[in-house]
Amino acid sequence: MDSPDIKLCMGCMREKQGKEAVCPFCGFDVNTPHHPLYLKPGTLVSKQYIVGKLIAYNGEGATYLGCDLTQNNKVLIREYMPDALAVRETGGEHVITLKGKETQYKALLSDFSDLCRQLQKLRTYTGLLSLTDFFEQNNTVYAVYQFVAETTLSSFFKENGVLTIETLKERLAPILAAVEAMHALGVIHRGISPETILVNEDRTLRLFGFSIPAARTAKCELAAELFAGYSPPELYSLTGWQGTWTDVYSVAAVIYTALTGVVPPEAPARLTGDTLKPASEVNPAVPEFISLVLQQAMALEPKERPQTIGAFSMALTQPAAPGGVMTENSDKRGENMYQEQPAKRKSAHKWKVRKRNFIYMMSSMLITTAVLLTLMFVILSEIDSSLLVFAKDNTPGTSIIDVSSDATASEAPYLLPDFVGSYLDSVKSKEDFQKKYFLTETEEYNDEQPAGVIFEQNPIANTPVTDSVNVAVKVSKGPAPIPDTIVGMAQADAQKTLDDLKIKYQVVQMYDDTVPAGNVIKVTRLPGEVMLFISQGSMNGASTGSGGYGGMTFEEYWKIFGTNSN
């Protein structure tokens, strides 16, 4: 719905004095074309909020500047609009789910609504950007956040350099308290970084940039928004265990940057060769015990980190116990911290009971396995003996089995581990690896695995083998790079380029005033596929019957959509 006749600039939400196209305050031009996937500036939602210019977008959706007409103040409006699963009705506001993506769209829409519901409970925490309202409309959900004139912590670092530990503890305290409360509700941020922390004029900090898990995990349905140096290893894989420890890593990385002025190495690079230097080595002013706490909190293995923000905060305020940063009992907030997506803390007693039961269960399984292996060995021995007797009794000359005195007994077989999904360097660094396996490596581009990860092995996992077995593995080089020049390219040339690179893609046609008809508007990479957006030119030149879909009606378009892919 178009907004009422209110003279506001859609770039800054200040009242305009005349009918000038360019705002004298912020320079926003009303003639600037808007992205066809997102809402047009001036749209009214919930009969209360005017949508202004597009500020940012990721795989989950878009963030707009807005104005609350009932309060006459600026707000931020977040719209669930996953470009991998949906498109915008041409010339309208309704969100249309892509054919075959309905279930995924609805499931992630539900996740978005749940996130909004939980964040609204935390609106009194000063360390978070408050979510004040959320509602359904246009087949999607909108979240409304407070607007505060702030800069990002990343920009603040560039202008002010490193901070002292005392200043940092004081400034971060509200955020740590808010994150701990967020975790108590079962919400994990997964994107804490200098880009998602705002600095106010009085230098107070606020955390923002909340997203659903699928938008912060590689190889999910949506294009993942990860923050190099701040996102932990488990976010780069679907098999990684995510939880409160995930945010602990990110917070520690932010503190590391604040104290040293250096961004930590990206997690996948650390897995292949860890070059993370202790903070005290980069900046000698950092206390040694603080440096050790940060080093442990940024451990590549989640179970080696402090498991909660509370435990991490406690470690930052007191020197380490002898022998390490964190002792087994140093986390007084609960012993059962390494579990996926904990929503509530378990009591220590329940954990001990579960731990004891787990030990009993594993012991029973090990004993049973040992008995079965022994029985199997006896049966195989009997079979070998039978074959040997048969060979001696029935074959003149050379026997079937070599029984010469210098023959040695073969080593007992074992099951080959599953290397698929693991980083090659991590596998090769394991103890006794070189003694057990001869590895043949082949590198190939792979859309589903990050660079350095094994995606195929031969023999396959659980094959019975003995030491010195030859194992052939295929290692990902990451997705095949898409040339920057493809944007603006003619459709036929763009498709040939992708075909030559063996990149799967899907063509989406849409109107765009800024790109000539038949040329590429943008390219969006999805797990295993690329979306190629092709311009149909300006809507002004479209016939009324086309509906914006190449001469077809909207219904006809969706009946065949999804078949045009390579």
From TrEMBL:
<keyword id="KW-0472">Membrane</keyword>
<dbReference type="Pfam" id="PF03793">
    <property type="entry name" value="PASTA"/>
</dbReference>
<keyword id="KW-0812">Transmembrane</keyword>
<feature type="domain" description="Protein kinase">
    <location>
        <begin position="49"/>
        <end position="321"/>
    </location>
</feature>
<keyword id="KW-0418">Kinase</keyword>
<dbReference type="InterPro" id="IPR011009">
    <property type="entry name" value="Kinase-like_dom_sf"/>
</dbReference>
<feature type="transmembrane region" description="Helical">
    <location>
        <begin position="358"/>
        <end position="380"/>
    </location>
</feature>
<dbReference type="GO" id="GO:0005524">
    <property type="term" value="F:ATP binding"/>
</dbReference>
<dbReference type="InterPro" id="IPR000719">
    <property type="entry name" value="Prot_kinase_dom"/>
</dbReference>
<dbReference type="InterPro" id="IPR005543">
    <property type="entry name" value="PASTA_dom"/>
</dbReference>
<keyword id="KW-1133">Transmembrane helix</keyword>
<keyword id="KW-0808">Transferase</keyword>
<dbReference type="Pfam" id="PF00069">
    <property type="entry name" value="Pkinase"/>
</dbReference>
<keyword id="KW-0723">Serine/threonine-protein kinase</keyword>
<dbReference type="GO" id="GO:0004674">
    <property type="term" value="F:protein serine/threonine kinase activity"/>
</dbReference>
<feature type="domain" description="PASTA">
    <location>
        <begin position="410"/>
        <end position="477"/>
    </location>
</feature>
<protein>
    <submittedName>
        <fullName>Serine/threonine protein kinase</fullName>
    </submittedName>
</protein>
